[in-house]
Amino acid sequence: xxxxxxxxxxxxxxxxxxxxxxxxxxxxxxxxxxxxxxxxxxxxxxxxxxxxxxxxxxxxxxxxxxxxxxxxxxxxxxxxxxxxxxxxxxxxxxxxxxxxxxxxxxxxxxxxxxxxxxxxxxxxxxx
Length: 127
Fold this sequence. Notes:
Blueprint (H helix, E strand, L loop, with lengths): L1 H21 L6 E4 L9 E5 L18 E9 L5 E6 L2 E6 L3 E6 L5 E4 L7 E3 L2 E3 L2
Antiparallel strand pairs: 1-3, 1-7, 2-3, 2-6, 3-4, 4-5, 8-9
Subcellular location: Endoplasmic reticulum membrane
Membrane topology: Single-pass membrane protein
Pfam family, one: SH3_2
């Protein structure tokens, strides 16, 4: 019985640490094509396969097209946000090449806590 309780506590600790990681703010600022970050900024093509560390990241294969909607700025300029089909998430800018630019002038805005939550099947996941 004690062993089962120890395993459950270990699973709870692992679950909690994954929860903290998946809600971590990646940057206080981001650049967008408009103040609401609704317009696509560019279309890019993956130059390498990418598998993100958690559910906030966009996974893709070499050659896939991604629409870019924002770029983190200041503290973490390497991550961009985009969509591929119905999937949406962060990815490293050095894993893609720009194919077409839609917005030439970027607007810098504060990020929101909801920018860093996992979205599954149209629902926010609060772990």
